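Today's session is about reading a structure prediction critically. Students often jump straight to the picture, but the first step is always the sequence itself: look for stretches that repeat, for charged clusters, for runs of hydrophobic residues. Only then move on to the predicted structure, which in these notes is written as discrete structure tokens rather than atom positions. Here is the chain we will use throughout the hour.
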Amino acid sequence: MDVNTSAVSRAYASARTAAAPLPKAGAAEQGLAGLAGNFVNALQEHEATARAAMTGDADPHALVQALASSQMAVETVATVRDRVVEAYQEILRMPV
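Below is the predicted structure for this chain, in token form.
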């Protein structure tokens, strides 16, 4: 039986990365904090665009885009919140 050592080492390396430990719990928390920060920054930018449109510094097209984008962001956050609440309720319903 002839075994190609480079193929074996590549297979081992790919299997090792698939079985690598998950990142620390702090990384997930930082990820969620980053997403929340991005959401807040997006809403602040959209609010600034709305103010500029009201004073005549921005065109109405930019206002419509900002409103649509902020609506999408709020709907996305509400959907994620609902899914988290549903998951928490499922965990509470589990028998111990």
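Discussion point for the tutorial: Residues 22-93 form one domain.
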